[in-house]
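DM from R.C. (forwarded with permission)

"hey, sorry to bug you on a friday — could you get me a structure for this? deadline for the figure draft is monday and I only need the backbone to look sensible"
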Amino acid sequence: MTAHREGNVMVLVTGDSAPIDGWSEDRTWFSCPWCGTGQRADEHTCPNPACVASQWADEQYVRDVFTRLAAADAHREQVRREAASLDRSREAGEAARQTAWDAVATEAAERGACLICLRGSPWEGGHPRYVRHRRADHHDRSAR
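My reply, with the result:
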């Protein structure tokens, strides 16, 4: 048994089928529902030799193609899940960093400490430096 067309349905050697939706206006040709190749209305198998609906596609070939497609889909889904996990992890890390900065910046404000010096200190490692300058323009003066 080979792939064949039954009315508006293309049936594979494995029994899988797909409806033919891509008919031309005059119904003289249609697009293969499996690969999209255009074919004449009087053809009963796909002329594309690599298509699962071609006359050369035996049952093992069709099963192999579907297995490869399923494996590729599973791989893409795994990559998507890993990317989503990395995004969630990155967002959680950024939120934790922002929370830690808010805490040390609040304490710096309460102490009247310089935020520029605090940012330059190892505040993320748990050793923030709270520096109070004698003059408010300390950093402006030191740049001269």
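R.C.: lifesaver. The mean pLDDT is 91.
me: no worries. The first strand starts at residue 4 and ends at 6.
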